[in-house]
Write a structure and sequence with these properties.
By secondary structure, the protein is mainly β. It has a single domain (2-84, 104-458), classed as Porin. It is 12% helix and 43% strand. The strands form 2 sheets. A 16-stranded antiparallel barrel has the order 3-5-6-7-8-9-10-11-12-13-14-15-16-17-18-19. The protein has a two-stranded antiparallel sheet with strand order 1-2. A hairpin with a 2-residue loop joins β7 (164-175) and β8 (178-185). The termini are far apart.
Length: 459
Amino acid sequence: MNRVRIVCSVALSLMLLVMSPLLMAARTESDGPVPSFARRYGLSCSTCHTVFPALTEYGRLFRAKGYRLPGAEPTVAGEEPLRLGPRAGGPGAKKPSGIPWIDIPATSVASFQVTADYIYRGDEEVTNEFTGISSVGLIFGGAMGEKFSFFGNIALVEDGRFEGIDRLFLQYNQSLGLNLRVGQFEPRAIPFSNHRRLLRITPYLNGVLPIVPAQNFFGFSPNQKGIEAFGRITGPGGAGEFDYSIGLINGEPGGAFEALEDASGPVADVVHALEEAYEESGGKYDFNNSKDYYARLNYNTWLHGALSLGGFVYSGKSGFLMDPAEPESFVNDGNDFDRWGLDLRWDQENGYLSLLTSVQFFNDKLERSMLNNPSAIVTTAEAQLYILPALVPGFRYERVDVDGYPAGMATSFERYSADLLMLLASNTMLMIGTTWSGRSAPNLPLFEKFSRVALHLAF
């Protein structure tokens, strides 16, 4: 069955590649913002973005180098650092203490992002609502000296509530071939980033899908706490490049918990029982002593456009309640699980079309339970079409095939997502989107049907 899913995924990718000339339309460069970086370097947002938050190749290199311009000196025009060490001076300056120092940016490192929504849910008693300001986020980052950099994202308001730290990490940049980051981040193991996805109506299922029968709510997104090494090296004979990453993280419940906050019935009961068990397990951020680990490798080359072929492996341990009604029955390492997958991304040569596809395998092994060991396969296919500089429609198809689930549950279900993005200005985007699922999809918030119109502003 696994081989069939892989063959189908690759066939779908090849079919889309063949069809790409039929989908082309005129397009010029467009602007998309990361305002704090644009202010510091005095560059157009289109230097690093196509339509924000999607990155160009230059933007990906800028991010990998610790938010430094590729090919530039550590100090460039527009980014004169604030001197903290012996080079600092001026009238009344004290003699340097002799302790190590790191220069910090002298210009703004922070931006705000604000989103306002109008949401329609035909199945609810109140079918449509204005959210006012649904989210306010503080994003900051920059380079400190020649080797260190930092990045953070704090969700000040999310659905009317203060959420707290989303991402926050310190990065050591030895070279493009070796970088380290430590803190709270989205692991690079994930096939496609949920933070930088272009279709905003739904998150990628492969980053947040829970395996409910195994009580496994691990998710790559929105973040994990740990340490990660990554870099880029040239391929054999100078042909192409390899991106790699390896990481060691807590493996905490991630976006799957957040995605099910509004769930009801048995699923909600399991979520609440596990939350209570986690709190009583003794760990402040992790509920067992085992740490999860992962590795990813991507090969980047040119095939009438930028082509990236990648794969990853992930191994972790999760907790399991032998009796959901008894928190004392919690076994903090009762589920020995793994995730692995293959993915492909292709950006057409003249920038008209982007295609993404992946197949990911979920395997859970319940060592102390009489339940069947559940497994799942998540297949993703997405197309983004750049019709005009400021008009980008996109469509995503996701399919979940499961095995070992309770009798009576569907063995496969699908979700569809469509977005239309319109740049009203370089830092202001109007998003119109809708999502729906097949009839066999479980009754969970991840598969609800709704439509949204949102205005997103970054400044």
